Amino acid sequence: MRAVLITLVCLVIGMATAKSDKKVFCYFGSWSVYRPGNGNFNITRDIDPSLCTHLVYTFVGLKNNEISILDPWADLSSDAGGHKNGYALFNALREKNPQLKTLIAIGGWNEGSRRYSYMAKNEEFREHFAANAADFVRKHGFNGMDFDWEYPAQRGGAPEDVQNYIELLKVLRIYFDEHNLMLTAAVAPTEVSASKSYRIPEIIKYLDYVNIMTYDFHVGIENKTDVHAPLYQGSEESQYYEGWNAEASIKYWLSQGCPKEKILMGVPLYGRSFTLCDPNVNHIGAPACGPGNAGSYSREPGMLGYNEICEMFKQQSWNEQYDEERHAPYAHNDFQWITYDNVRSIKKKTELIKKLNLGGAMVWSIETDDFSGICGEKYPLLNTLINGIRNRH
Fold it and tell me: Which intervals hold domain GH18 (predicted)?
């Protein structure tokens, strides 16, 4: 009888492990601590450390080939008080969930490529940066670093970035392995961009995971509306946009030798918005005359958090549509047009993640979900993603 009980316990543990082995990387935009009203985000109050397997604090920058703290007021403590002490509070979440891993991300869109290209071209500079990065991660109590250079050999970079990026990851891996630290990277999704920046079979040797940014395929500065995070190709899309969707991007990375277990598919918890030229012409591909209006929390034209979107839907009458080919919702109200993800579209994305047996998913970013439950349950999109890839109901 005892042997039977032990066997049953082992089976239950094994089933639980099998259902929970998918990783969920959750990026956190640290500037959200300054947002007003319902958009204000507090690390201790609003992050549930049991949801994500990995939390990524964004961002630090690069200056003189060393890590530069971009917002000391938000990130650090102060003897005089007043500072928000973000790093310490973020890493303290592991006390509530010892299985949780925390990472610091360097780079991001606003950093561009120039400084990273300069650092990576010189062996001495690379060595200095790698040592500095490992020290920084340990000093502030993180488990690793997410390298978010957007993008090698582009945006002010140089052709030699492609090889230098490999050399940089190689030396970072050496320093990080000395202290058992994680090293991940956020990477371009499409073949047209990724092929310019990476030799995928080489870079993947040195990375624990790649966070493939399968979103922002279209943004509000374009002259026509389009879906920013389509799961599949639309039949009416031009040949120019072939491959500009999550499925094609993931399959490209797989075709280039990236192990499926290292791939985390990006899922956005925000939308992109456009201003229609004519409110009566409001289909996908309708003429747009600029980005949509800024949200009251994110305050960025052309971008809206899901928390802003769901509140707008409660307060105003929006015409909500769902594109069955791309598996993407969109909505319009007067001159405003929004492309976003909802519970339905994220469920479809979890199906692809499981079908391709990927390592899991990553989200950008937790503070743009409905984290307070203003429109219903807390974190509706994140919970849908987690439940989907871990076969929970």
Answer: 22-392
Q: Is residue 329 part of a domain?
A: no
Cβ proximity of 263 and 254 under 8 Å: yes
Structure-token pair, residue 61: 């920058």
Q: Is 291 contained in some domain?
A: no
Write out the two tokens for 74.
């938000």
| Per-residue pLDDT tens over the stretch 334-381 | 999 999 999 999 999 999 999 999 999 999 999 999 999 999 999 999
Per-residue pLDDT tens over the stretch 21-65 = 999 999 999 999 999 999 999 999 999 999 999 999 999 999 999
What pTM value is reported for the model?
0.94
DSSP 58: E
Query: What are the structure tokens assigned to 34, written together?
Result: 């300054």
Give the structural domain span for 231. 21-268+341-389
DSSP string for 295-361? PTTT--TTEEEHHHHHHHHHHS--EEEEETTTTEEEEEETTEEEE---HHHHHHHHHHHHHTT-SEE
List active site positions.
Answer: 150
